[in-house]
Write a structure and sequence with these properties.
- This protein has 12 helices and 8 strands.
- The relative contact order is 0.14.
- The chain is globular and about 55 Å long.
- With about 325 residues, it is α/β, with parallel strands linked by helices.
- It has one domain: TIM Barrel (Alpha-Beta Barrel).
- The termini are far apart.
- It binds flavin-adenine dinucleotide.
- The site of flavin-adenine dinucleotide has 24 residues, from strand 3, helix 5, helix 6 and strand 6.
Length: about 325
Amino acid sequence: MNSVSRPGADQPIRGRASAGWVSTTPSVVSRLESADCGRVPFSVEFSPPRDEAAEARLWRAVREFEPMRPAFVSMTYGAGGTTRDRTVRVTGQIAAETTLLPVAHLTAVEHTVDELRALVGAYADCGVRNILALRGDPPGDPLGEWIKHQDGVEYAHELVSLVRDLGDFHVGVASFPEGHHRSPDLDHDTAHLVRKLRAGAEYSITQMFFDVEHFLRLRDRVDAYDPEQGAKPIIPELMPITSLRSVRRMVELSGSHLPKDLEERLTRAAGDGPEEDRQAVREVGIELATQMGERLIAEGAPCLHFITLNFARATREVLANLGLGVATV
Ligand SMILES: Cc1cc2nc3c(=O)[nH]c(=O)nc-3n(C[C@H](O)[C@H](O)[C@H](O)COP(=O)(O)OP(=O)(O)OC[C@H]3O[C@@H](n4cnc5c(N)ncnc54)[C@H](O)[C@@H]3O)c2cc1C
């Protein structure tokens, strides 16, 4: 378990970053609402660094994105005690030492409720008030059987309630344009997304997808199921593809799909040499992410959220193509 300290008793968590009893940290939704007129905001996802070299790379990416004014930056949360400690520390440093608004992903995997409370307290202590509440996947095999910790939570909607009950936090959740791989069908999936929103989540960020129609249908489903919850922002997540091998793996683990014609195009670009032609794959990936971004903007997406894997270049190219995120002096 992490070395973060437990908050005292069952009291709301305030954290030293709060002004009095109420946090002054902006929420993701307020950032989206106050975005520059006429420009769709963007945001980026970082991954926790596993060692010092990776941490240096993360900071290079952070500093490259900072002047481009993303609406927020999110930090994923993974397995492993050391990395988890580092995740809390680095996310806190982003809050304290940069102008960026960090969103901490929090997963229920292998945590007791007490540990989850302690983690939320640790985030509050370092000024992080925006949390993406997730169930997480089973460690080892993300597609394997989910086994709830005996003192933990079963589903993300419980985590939403838990974080909200702890104090002045802004909570988001995950949504799945193609349906979550554990949901029997899209109706079930929609019902559970709405349940998370009704529990107090203010917005959702989608799983990556490669066909904008999936995103649009998700939005329609939520709206039809519960118009009040459907009014909350659904933020599409984009991943500029830079490697066929790694996107295949990510797609397999995430439960999303590469459309057949895109996979064929990427396979042709990769070539049949012993190593894939990364440059050619990258060109297809940037073009696709640009086209998807254009369509999403035209369809009124509230923000474009980019998976960066802690590299800035591909996302910056897509943003430049879209005329977004131009550095302001
Ligand atoms: C934007 C985004 C960011 C992510 N970041 C991370 C990360 O940082 N770290 C990480 O480990 N993983 C991350 N994930 C992956 C995520 O944790 C997994 O996809 C996980 O399997 C589902 O998490 P959830 O929060 O959607 O779970 P839940 O909302 O709990 O849903 C899990 C499954 O249970 C079903 N379900 C929910 N409630 C009920 C109920 N009451 N009864 C029956 N079935 C129910 C759902 O339909 C779904 O099939 C992320 C995913 C996304 C989209």
